[in-house]
Structure formats: C-alpha cells, structure tokens
From TrEMBL:
SUPFAM superfamilies registered for this protein in UniProt: ATP synthase (F1-ATPase), gamma subunit (SSF52943)
Localization terms from the record: Cell membrane; Membrane
NCBIfam families listed in its UniProt record: ATPsyn_F1gamma
Protein name as annotated: ATP synthase gamma chain
Species assigned in the record: Marinilabilia rubra
GO biological process: proton motive force-driven plasma membrane ATP synthesis
Function: Produces ATP from ADP in the presence of a proton gradient across the membrane. The gamma chain is believed to be important in regulating ATPase activity and the flow of protons through the CF(0) complex.
InterPro entries: ATP_synth_F1_ATPase_gsu (IPR035968), ATP_synth_F1_gsu (IPR000131), ATP_synth_F1_gsu_CS (IPR023632)
Amino acid sequence: MSNLKDIRTRIGAIKTTRQVTSAMKMVSAARLKKAQDDVGHIRPYTSHLLGIINDMVAAHPDVTIKYTTPGRGTKVVLWVIASNRGLCGGFNANIVKAVQNLLKTELRDDYRSGNVEIRVLGKQAWKMLRSRNIIPTLLEEGQLSDPTFNKVSMLAEELLDEYDLGILKKSIVVYNEFINAAVQQVQVQQFLPIAIPEIKRDKAISKYILEPNRQTIVDTLMPKTLKSMFYQVVLESIASEHGARMTSMHKATDNATDLIKDLQLSYNKARQSAITNELIEITSGAEALKK
C-alpha cells in the first residue's frame, strides 16, 4: 500500500506543476500577442527612417552621415539583451554562448586589453555571464518590465554621447530576433558605427524641396534612427522571450500530462495487483478453514 501512496503523491505533485506551467503558457501567449504587435509597428518605422537617409545620400553624394565611421576612442561597448526571468528554454543560454564566442573571436584583442565594456539588459544573462567569469559592468532591468521608447532610447543616447565625446570606438548588440512564436534567432549586430543598408524607393528624394537643407535633416534623423533601432532590438528580444517561454511551458505541460498518464497506469496496475493478492489470501484462508 505504501507504493500506491507514493504514486498518488507523485501524481498530485505533477498535476500541481502542470497547473503552473499551463497558467504560465497562457500568460506568455497573451503577452506575446502585444509584443508581436509592438514589433510589427517598429519594424516599418525604422525601415522608413533608414530609407529616407539612404535616399538623401543616393540623390546627393555631398550629404555626409554621422556615426558611419569608427569612433575616435578605444572603448568597445557590448550590449547583451536578455531577460529578467527564466523558464524560457535556451533563450538566455544561446545569448551567453554568442557573447562568449564574440569575446574569443572578433573582440578578443580588445577584451584582453580591457577595452570591452559589457552592459546587460536582463538579470538572467547577468548571472550566467558572472558564473562563467565574464564580469559585466552594468545591469539594467526596468526597461524590460516597462519598455517605453523614452526609457530604452536613453541607453542608445548614452552610446551616442560617448561616440561624440571620442570615448567610444564601436558598439555591438547581441539579442534574439523574433521570427515566430517557436523560433528565435540570435543576432550579433554592430550598432556603432552604423552601416546604412540600401533600400530601394519608388520616388527619388531629389524631386522634393527640403527645408532647411538636406544635411541638417540627415543630422537630425540619424540620432532618432539609431534610438529607434535600439528600441526595435529590445522589442524583438521581449517578443522572443515570450515566444520561447510559451513554447517551453507548452512542452512542459505536455510532458506533465504524459507523465501523469504513465503514473496513473502504474497506479492502476499496482492497485489491481494488491486487490488480486488480497483475494488470493481470502480464498486461501477460506480453504484452510474448510479443512
């Protein structure tokens, strides 16, 4: 009977766990919907800003773009965008692996000379990096729980200020790009200096009269574009986190259901065996009394 009691206890514990994972899956699914909408809005906005700048330069080669050449400084800022909470599969682990690989390859010399400053958005990556003897210099958390443009853009603005002051050489961002609810892809993106992609437009910007002048417009748009790009990176990461957690909790719920079925079958077999043994004992006792 003690074996039956143990199985019942395990079934009860797993049912409780399944309730938790199922609730987390539903919460992540609801949050994912909003995060997907946010990503869907910011992507075309950033793309159009880059397209305007690209058109300006294509139509007027005399227009120069700031932030497209390496900075005058020696510092390299590596921004790691992760999550504050766990239970999201390999979401954070994949980011940390990419950071380790980056420090061993492209940033090896700068890292060994002490010129790499690692800034982390998300407690989970902070903990994992420190456990691997990689010590970040800055941890930010609030931007993930309340990812407003003003809060996130301050992080990008700090990079731009360091570039303008001649402190920064370049900046790289490591994050998860949102593909769909089940797929997130780690991206290592150079944030500064920026490479303006060529985006084909229907109409040349040269057909329009621009005030006050093209150079001023480009100089004004560049910081706004970079802030928008950084904000997009954070939103992509948040959507990826919710997608990864929803998928992970869905699998955990299914595994718990399968385990409960197996344990229930074991319980039924053990119970049937116990009943059979009791019947045999009763029958044997009755036969003994007849003799």
